[in-house]
Write a structure and sequence with these properties.
Elements (H helix, E strand, L loop, with lengths): L2 H9 L5 H4 L6 H14 L7 E9 L2 E9 L6 E5 L12 H7 L4 E5 L5 H7 L1 H5 L4 H19 L4 E6 L2 H11 L4 E7 L5 H19 L2 H9 L11 H13 L11 H4 L10 H24 L12 E6 L7 H10 L5 E6 L6 H4 L1 H16 L6
Parallel strand pairs: 3-4, 3-5, 5-6, 6-7, 7-8
Antiparallel strand pairs: 1-2, 2-4
Helix pairs in contact: 1-11, 4-16, 5-13, 7-8, 9-10
Length: 368
């Protein structure tokens, strides 16, 4: 494992161990999960509620399909990480989405339920950006056929934007709208912008400790592989300055959400942390090469949902690209009280933005 990989895991994915902690022994904990599960049930006559493994790219991969009305537009959530599955963490906000969209969550190869049920050997066999984008194309085809829709909404969060845009550009005629949430567009540019934003914050706050530590790692990210010590310092201050979760020094509310999930058992939560450790080393070379800022034209609507305080994937990389992008519709939507986790940080405003800006682009005739 390279030193960069070790740093990446230590500063981000190792936090998923919080989700894998055994549940508390109090009787109340065993009561809460069934209560949440009951509240999440979809009982309307035309509802859909599916949790199953489907074959994508020769591997059984786990999906959920949930919606209050099958006539609603279909939204596929492409989670970040790599390895940071959203399926077990989506319950605090997703039930509201399901009144307006049929929502598909997918545990990508290398993490979560897909890793747990298919095993590590099968998951790491084709753990590449190219194969995962191909998996997503297959998933879109499956969803189109099963739900009888021509086009879907793709929502890519962070790393999910890499394979999300890859798949969208392969099959643009299947995409009714593309939504990027805290998207990773170009790793080298991202790290450079992150470092500059951290320096500005440290100066504004008069934080002598941060200024000294950040100055000591200059130039950052530099050329080639980024040393362990440098990445650790940058990620430390991203977290401390609320660049992952706004106005917070940690994101435990997000990492621990899977502990109460009706869709995730303890063994599934263990597979989140295991998935991060498997996925990051395998996919880091692909992450270093990604540069979606080279995309000059998209034949589908493109919307960027950005947290104003996001230092994990700074908006200074995304805004110039969106400004020059040619697309039939393009829009930048700000979340003023969010950083990198807008669906969790501002769930109400996020739902309103989806309904106001995205749903009209793909709503089927007769839907309200």
């Amino acid at each position: 494992m390279t030193r960069f990989v070790a740093a990446f895991l230590a500063t981000f994915l190792a936090l998923d161990a919080l989700a894998a902690s055994p549940p508390p022994a109090e009787p109340g904990y065993a009561t809460v999960r069934p209560m949440i599960a009951d509240q999440q049930r979809l009982v309307a006559p035309n509802a859909i509620e599916v949790s199953e493994a489907v074959e994508l790219g020769g591997l059984k991969q786990w999906i959920t399909i949930r919606g209050a009305d099958r006539a609603n537009p279909v939204l596929i959530y492409v989670h970040g990480g790599p390895g940071a599955t959203e399926m077990g963490r989506s319950w605090p906000y997703q039930r509201g989405w399901e009144d307006f969209f049929t929502v598909v969550q997918w545990d990508q190869r290398g993490t979560g339920k897909t890793l747990r049920h298919a095993g590590e050997a099968a998951n790491k066999l084709e753990l590449t950006r190219q194969q995962m984008a191909a998996d997503l194309v297959e998933l879109i085809a499956l969803v189109r056929q099963r739900l009888r829709v021509e086009r879907v909404i793709l929502l890519g969060h962070s790393w999910g934007n890499v394979i999300g845009l890859d798949a969208a550009m392969r099959k643009p005629e299947w995409v009714g709208a593309y939504v990027g949430v805290g998207p990773l567009m170009n790793l080298q540019a991202n790290e450079r912008a992150q470092y500059e934003a951290l320096l500005r914050q440290a100066r504004l706050r008069g934080d002598a400790t941060a200024q000294a530590e950040l100055a000591a790692i200059a130039p950052y990210p530099g050329e080639g592989e980024i040393p362990f010590e440098k990445v650790n310092v940058a990620r430390k201050w991203v977290m401390a300055y609320g660049g992952l979760a706004a106005s917070r020094k940690d994101a435990n509310f997000y990492f621990q959400a899977a502990r109460l999930s009706p869709y995730y058992e303890f063994e599934d939560r263990l597979a989140i942390d295991q998935g991060g450790q498997l996925s990051v080393p395998a996919l880091l070379p692909d992450m270093r090469r990604v540069d979606h800022t080279r995309i000059a034209e998209a034949p589908f609507p493109v919307l960027m949902f950005l947290g104003r305080h996001d230092l994990t994937t700074p908006s200074s990389v995304i805004e110039p690209w969106l400004a020059r992008l040619k697309a039939p519709v393009k829009k930048l939507v700000w979340f003023e009280h969010s950083a990198h986790l807008a669906p969790h940080e501002e769930p109400g405003r996020f739902l309103v933005a989806l309904v106001q800006h995205v749903r009209p682009l793909v709503a089927r005739p007769g839907t309200r």
